[in-house]
Amino acid sequence: MINRITAYWNDRSASWRKERDEAWSRPETERWLDFFKSVRSQVTGNKVLEVGTATGYFANIMTLAGFEVTAVDLSPQMIEYANLVSQELELNVDYQVMDAQTLQFEANTFDLVFTRLMTWTIPDLEKCYREMERVLKSGGRLINLDADFGKTVFSTERHDECPSGAIDQINDIKSALEISAHQRPAKDVELLETVGFGAIEIDMDAQNRILGLPFETEGLFMLEAVKK
User: Fold this and answer.
1) Is 201:224 a contact under the CB 8 Å cutoff?
2) pLDDT class of 212 with cuts at 50, 70, 90
3) Angle, CA 81 vertex, CA 79 and CA 87 arms, to 5°
4) Which of 1, 33, 78, 144 is the most exposed place for a label (fewest CB within 10 A)?
5) In the chain, where are the structural domains located?
6) Residue of 24 and 106 predicted with greater confidence
7) Which spans in the chain are helix H?
8) Is-contact 61 38, C-beta < 8 A?
9) Confidence at residue 216, expressed as pLDDT on a 0 to 100 scale
10) CB of 58 within 8 A of CB of 33?
11) How far apart are CA 196 and CA 201, in angstroms?
């Protein structure tokens, strides 16, 4: 399954970079920057790990917000593009190819772990959350923005740069993932508690609030948790 997921995101990397490059000229980038500046003011240290960085859009914004950013992704092609983007922006981000289920970092390394639209793609989400908890320092914070895609059927209507064959492929992959059988974020809360996180909070309107969108617009939930 990991090989299938890697191959899919490698194939999507060029269109993903195009979409993210276009986002830099839109107001949402300033809103995300304001959000991460706020997060930075609330976190004791500045060492952040982004898990599932794709082509580095959020890694670069977090760098601009004052974080020292390490960013990982399963796809080597995504990481190649991410390095190019940061070079063009003249920003310093430590990019590495890595499986979120087996993070190659020492325990107690980061003050913040951030991930967005990544955990729905993970074969073993408990293992992933356990790794995130391990690499956080005591009192470190996890922020995860995602959605309950289990019963969603993706289509090209909302993914203009994605060919129909790729859509069929990701629908097939998603249906085979264990997390797709559960209601989220309720299942996430259960898993976070199991691996030892505390102070778990859920904001079902987080992304709409950050981007200034109407709350009736479909958006992402945000999970926050603290390592005990």
Assistant:
1) yes
2) very high
3) 105
4) 1
5) 2-227
6) 106
7) 2-23, 27-42, 57-64, 76-89, 125-135, 164-176, 186-195, 206-211
8) no
9) 84
10) no
11) 14
User: Average pLDDT in the 133-137 region?
Assistant: 98
Specify the DSSP class assigned to residue 3.
H
* Calpha distance 79→223 (Å, rounded): 25
Instruction: Name the pTM for this structure.
Output: 0.95
- Give the pLDDT band (50/70/90) at residue 14: confident
Average pLDDT over residues 97-113: 98
Distance CA 173, CA 1 (A): 8
Query: What strand order describes the sheet that includes 221-227?
Result: 94-97, 68-73, 47-51, 110-116, 136-146, 221-227, 197-203
Tokens representing 221 are 């939930």
pLDDT tens-place string over residues 156-176: 665 556 666 888 899 999 999
Q: How far apart are CA 143 and CA 58, in angstroms?
A: 13
CATH fold, domain 2-227, is Rossmann fold (3.40.50)
Residue 93 tokens, joined:
């981000």
Amino acid identity for residue 37 in this structure: K
Q: Tell me the pairing of strands 94-97 and 68-73.
A: parallel
Q: How many residues does the chain have?
A: 228
CA gyration radius for the chain? 16
CB 148 within 8 A of CB 135: no
With beta carbons less than 8 A apart as the criterion, state whether 200 and 224 touch.
yes
Mean local confidence (pLDDT), 205-218: 92
